[in-house]
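Thread: protoporphyrin IX containing FE complex, take 2
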Amino acid sequence: MNTIGDWLDERLGWKTIWQTVFVRKVPKVNWWYTLGSATLFVGMVQGITGILLSLYYVPSPDQAYDSVQYITTQLPAGWFIRGLHHWGASALLVLAVIHMLRVIMFGAYKFPREMTWFTGIGLLLIAVGFGFTGYLLPWDQKAYWATTVGTRIAGVVPWLGESILRIARGGPELSALTLVRFFGVHVWFLPVAGVAFIGLHIYLVIKLGISAPPKRKE
Ligand code: HEM
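Output below.
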């Protein structure tokens, strides 16, 4: 096993990457510092359960509702995978916000970590985007009317409102186009943006090192 590891290391240099990511030195910290990793873990669970759900979900007004019912009541462990994805969405937002509060309380957003903070804001917006687009996908009454109201709120933005509403809905009313659009954003645009922002965020955390808890006199 060791020989294979060494053989691969000579060609890929994976040991250096492993050391940099997992064996790096960190200051003495406390449980508040685990919130970022907890958010990351839930984000990964969302990715895996989302991919599994996409194998059975059909993004068309005729079949979306039925496909979700099928996943929940017929598919082996479908209820579990959907439940994880459903509650994971709320858990992700709650954890991300508490993680952000920790960063504020400990002053960890200050120099040189401003860009870590900005990429964090990007991640928070992406998480909200996931929630908003995902809510429509079951295509039931709650989903339909929540999105009607949500897009109408976007419609009252001065000057640009009407255009934002039409782009979000794919027309003046909610239709098949809205569902397909929300699905596309939920499974393509946001995951790609999310992976890019998480990559940047973690790169910065590793490059700058974690901040030590502030001392009373600082
Ligand atoms: C939503 C997904 C997010 C993930 C997966 C994530 C992940 C992480 C991880 C793993 C760390 C390492 C240290 C720790 O756990 O505290 C970290 C640190 C950090 N995060 Fe996040 N984060 C997210 C959102 C945010 C948000 C919303 C903000 C603020 C707007 C933010 C700002 C920061 C900053 C400034 C640090 C450096 C903290 C330090 O050095 O003490 N992050 N993040």
